[in-house]
UniProtKB/TrEMBL annotation:
Binds 1 zinc ion per subunit. Its cofactor is Zn(2+). The keyword Kinase does not apply. It is an enzyme of class 5 (isomerase). SUPFAM superfamilies: RmlC-like cupins. One of its GO terms (molecular function) is zinc ion binding. Its EC number is 5.3.1.17. This is 4-deoxy-L-threo-5-hexosulose-uronate ketol-isomerase. The keyword Metal-binding applies. It comes from Brumicola blandensis. Catalyzes the isomerization of 5-dehydro-4-deoxy-D-glucuronate to 3-deoxy-D-glycero-2,5-hexodiulosonate. The gene is kduI.
Length: 276
C-alpha cells in the first residue's frame, strides 16, 4: 500500500511541477498480475488498479485498515476500463465488460478479480471509502447508468456523464462514481469548473493514445496550477481545489467522490472569469 498525503491549500502555490505531481497524483495504477493500492487523505479514499493476466488476484487487507478483510468497514466502486473480466464477491460472480461498474458493499469478505482472457486483460479501477452500513453489492452496466449530455461543440466541451454508482442507481454510504466521455473533436472536461467543499474527488484519465496528455487544472480558483496527466493516472482533488482539464485529444475519465453528501449537483459553480 502506498500513501498519498496531499499538500495544503497554501503550500501547493509554491510547488514545482514535480512536487505537485508527487503531492496529488497516483502515477501507476495498472501493473501486470498485480493490485496497486494507494491510501489517500482525501476522505480516506483508497484508489486501486487491478490487471489480472495469468492469475486471479484477491483484494487484500492492510495494517492501515485495521480490519480482518478489506471491506469489513469499507465500500468499493469498481469500473472495468479493459477487456472482459470477472469479479467474485463471496462466491457470487459478476461479469464486467468495458465500462461496466460494480458496487461492493461493506461486509463483503472475499473479493477477487480475473480476466476472461489474459491476452486481452481486464483493467479494474477501484475507489473505496469508509462505510457506516452494508448496502447490497450491485452491477451497473454502462447502458443502465444515469446519463447526462453536457457541453457544446463550439465550446469544445461536448461530453456524456454516466452516473453509474449514484443514488439514482443504488444505495451507497458515501461513494458516488461514474464515467465522463469527451466526444471526438472536443477536449474540455468540467468546463465551466467548480469546487464542492462538501466532497473530495478523484479523477482518472484513460482512453487516449499513450503519447497524448490531459492538462488538469487544480488549486483555489484564484491560484490555478496545471498538472500534466498521462493516460491511466489519477489525481486527487481536496475540497478547496477546482478539477477541470483540457486534453491534447478527446479522452474518457472516471470521477469518484466521497464526503458529506452524495448530491452530484451540489457544486459551487465558477465561471472562467473567476479563474486566475
Ligand atoms: O465533465 C464534467 O463536467 C464532469 O465529469 C464533472 C465531474 O463529474 C465532477 O467533477 C463532479 O463533481
Ligand atoms: Zn467535481
Amino acid at each position: 500500500m502506498k500513501f498519498l498525503l496531499t499538500p495544503d491549500s497554501n503550500s501547493y502555490k509554491r510547488m514545482t511541477n514535480a512536487e505537485l505531481e508527487d503531492g496529488f497524483t497516483i502515477p501507476e495504477l495498472f501493473v501486470v498480475d498485480e493490485i496497486t493500492l494507494t491510501y489517500t487523505d482525501v476522505d480516506r479514499a483508497v484508489v486501486s488498479g487491478v490487471m489480472p493476466v495469468s492469475k486471479t488476484i484477491d483484494l487484500p487487507t492492510h495494517k492501515e485498515l485495521a480490519s480482518a478483510y478489506f471491506c469489513e468497514r469499507r465500500e468499493v466502486g469498481v469500473i472495468n476500463i479493459g477487456d472482459e473480466g470477472v469479479v467474485t464477491v463471496d462466491g457470487e460472480t459478476f461479469n464486467m465488460t468495458n465500462k461496466d461498474s460494480l458496487y461492493i458493499g461493506r461486509g463483503s469478505e472475499k473479493v477477487s478479480f480475473a480476466s476472461k482472457d489474459g491476452s486481452t486483460p481486464a483493467k479494474f479501477y477501484l475507489v473505496s471509502y469508509p462505510a457506516h452500513t452494508a448496502y447490497p453489492t450491485k452491477l451497473v452496466a454502462q447502458e443502465n447508468a444515469n446519463k447526462l449530455a453536457l457541453g457544446e461543440q463550439d465550446q469544445s466541451n461536448k461530453r456524456t456523464i454516466y452516473q453509474s454508482l449514484c443514488p439514482k442507481t443504488l444505495e451507497s454510504c458515501q461513494l458516488v462514481m461514474g464515467i465522463t466521455e469527451i466526444e471526438s473533436g472536443n477536449v474540455w472536461n468540467t468546463k465551466p469548473p467548480h469546487t464542492h467543499a462538501r466532497r473530495t474527488e478523484v479523477y482518472m484519465y484513460f482512453d487516449m493514445p499513450s503519447h497524448e496528455r490531459v492538462f488538469h487544472f487544480m488549486g483555489e480558483p484564484s491560484n490555478v496550477r496545471a498538472v500534466v496527466m498521462k493516460p491511466e493516472t489519477a489525481i486527487a482533488s481536496p475540497t478547496w481545489s477546482i478539477h477541470s482539464g483540457v486534453g491534447s485529444t478527446n479522452y474518457t475519465f472516471i470521477w469518484a467522490m466521497g464526503g458529506e453528501n452524495q448530491e452530484f449537483d451540489d457544486m459551487d459553480h465558477l465561471t472562467l472569469a473567476d479563474i486566475s
